[in-house]
């Protein structure tokens, strides 16, 4: 009210020296590293991608469903860990007063309000098709379960609960694998360039994924052999679980060598040690280890992410192997393609690769860990500038 200095500076300083001050502003635009909670970003990305296939639209954009699908696993494991602190005879007493178990019940009730309308929509589509109408409908696992389940399995509460349980194995394990992979690559930045070059080479040969009608994930993702190798190597250091093929002896067993296994004994394989004992220099992270091994041995269909074999048990083995592993690997590749192509990463100043945490045989990355990221600098073909 007493002066127009703020106006005079615009007229007399900023505008006459406009190019100079825009250059000053541009310098700050180039300094746009942002610290992010990459694990939360991955959880939400994977939750959306998974929901798109599992339940379809609009659930994949429903914030309440996405949050529910993320928190359900946390509450379930919290319930499990609490009960394991008490002998089995006390479980009926402890379970009803466990807050995490209350949250599970509330979330299943919420899920029912979200998914039941989608189930009714599918029933209407089925009725109209039976009447001879041609009706288009989005493909989803929920619809398939309704069409192929028994009468009991397709009861609303039963099917909703099954959808919640599907989120347990499909969201956190995949998002943690993504976090560990980006942490490992950031700790070993020499691998960023070969992975980006592979993506660019595939895009040059086949076009960008989604832009050519005849080319989809089936043809595209197997071409990313180096990215596949980087994930297998990352999973070697940070598998979702230290022990695979968990079993319980339902009766006493005596093996051929005389080893006696009493009834009730828990059995498992130390999958980390089994794999590492077969490798040269297992303490080093080598993102291209499995890529080289495939080409050096000529076994191009071996050592792939999601492929089970007797030395690599991180996804299980045989008919008990993780049934959703190939979907998870595909999601990981899709996310990493986008991130590597468009962004750069580094750790915050003074920080390095976050340490993993352990809870019994389970492994998960430090939930407090952060990452710095910014839009990738790509040199201009004409002037060479990257800003």
TrEMBL record:
The keyword Translocase does not apply. The keyword Metal-binding applies. SUPFAM superfamilies: Cytochrome P450. Keywords: Heme, Iron, Metal-binding, Oxidoreductase. Coiled coil: none annotated. GO terms for molecular function: heme binding; iron ion binding; monooxygenase activity; oxidoreductase activity, acting on paired donors, with incorporation or reduction of molecular oxygen. Its cofactor is heme. Belongs to the cytochrome P450 family. This is Cytochrome P450.
